[in-house]
Amino acid sequence: LLGPDGSLAVTIFEEITTLANRHGAINLGQGFPDEDGPAELGRIAQDAIANGNNQYAPGKGMPDLRAAVAEHQERFYGLTPDPETEIIITTGATEAIASAILSLTGPGDEVLTFEPFYDSYGAMIGLSGAKHTTAALLAPDFMPDLATLEDGFSPRTKMVIVNNPHNPTGAMFPVEVLSEVVRLAIKYDAVILTDEVYEHLTFGPRHIPVATLPGAADRTLTVSSAGKTFSFTGWKIGWLSGPARLVAAARTVKQFLTYSSGTPFQTAIAAGLRMDESFFTDAAATLRRKRDILSEGLRAAGLDVLPSQGTYFINADTAGLGITDATGLARRLPGLIGVAAIPVPVFCHPDGARRTRSLLRFAFCKKEELLEQAAGRLATLK
Ligand code: PMP
Ligand code: GLN
């Protein structure tokens, strides 16, 4: 966990947000919305605090929230996890990911991720002592090459991590890709850890949970989070679900990371998960409009915009502007034009970083006028 100069690493999100704040830049870097989620959920959390629900929740999560997670999975996907043994509540998806990786993998094991990969996977695989192997997702649509995917597996592969919809690319994997991952996980007897925090933030294709695919359920741990779905990223309420033996293993680690997670927020998120279908579809439609505004603006600014089917994010290629170092550019942009973005190479090992060296990731979960303003500022780079 050291940076390139040997100093202790600070995450790219922290680094770019600090730069954005220093320069008063429009922050299209770190993925957090600039408007709060449903006011009624805020009131439920406030009432829970006022009514004295301020002590430790049970380690595996409040029973009502575990029940709500189970109901949500049944309502949207027809899955029926047992809230007692097959679901735990975590401190954000981040802790679910950490607990799963640290409990199930270690030295001598390999963990396969797609590349680019969300930063915490690399850090946690590193802490576990396992070897991190990757399978490339190639621009413009960021799909893996199914003909060579098996090359990433070996008899040592203990876990394969899927992230769908995918951060940082905005890709959504079709059933053929997900089924091939499941087939190979079965063949090599690997656990599938699937990070589906953007399950409701999709702009066309329907989200397909890995756990619904034939043969997947008894080796799949699914991670999700309230942060993205309900626009409360600071509440840090996430969850992990899957077969009892894998959830129990993750829980063993979880209890020594944080023991339990914010009690009043759990009450509110239980209500959130029970909201009408229209809440979920409206949130996705609002975000889709923001995606369209930003992609139009980026295109007008002379950037080559890559497709985004879900998440908060869209990628743009700066090569057309003669730029080959997106990481250097991302560090200069806040001071230069008052816009912050995340460089895609930071989500890669060295080969992948070369492939993605001119790509920037922009977050569009921001007010529409800010997206337009940011695009206007980027146009001055031409
Ligand atoms: N996984 C992915 C793919 C993410 O983008 C994020 C960031 N929201 C997380 C996990 C972490 O989620 P949380 O804030 O709930 O810990
Ligand atoms: N998930 C957020 C992103 O991808 C960042 C969360 C964090 O700062 N760790 O931008």
From TrEMBL:
Matching InterPro entries: Aminotransferase_I/II_large, Kynurenine-oxoglutarate_AT, PyrdxlP-dep_Trfase, PyrdxlP-dep_Trfase_major, PyrdxlP-dep_Trfase_small
Coiled coil: none
Gene Ontology molecular function terms on file: kynurenine-oxoglutarate transaminase activity; pyridoxal phosphate binding
Annotated ranges, domain Aminotransferase class I/classII large: 26-378
Superkingdom per UniProt: Bacteria
Keywords: Aminotransferase, Pyridoxal phosphate, Transferase
Cofactor annotation: pyridoxal 5'-phosphate
Protein name: Aminotransferase class I/II-fold pyridoxal phosphate-dependent enzyme
Species this protein is from: Arthrobacter wenxiniae
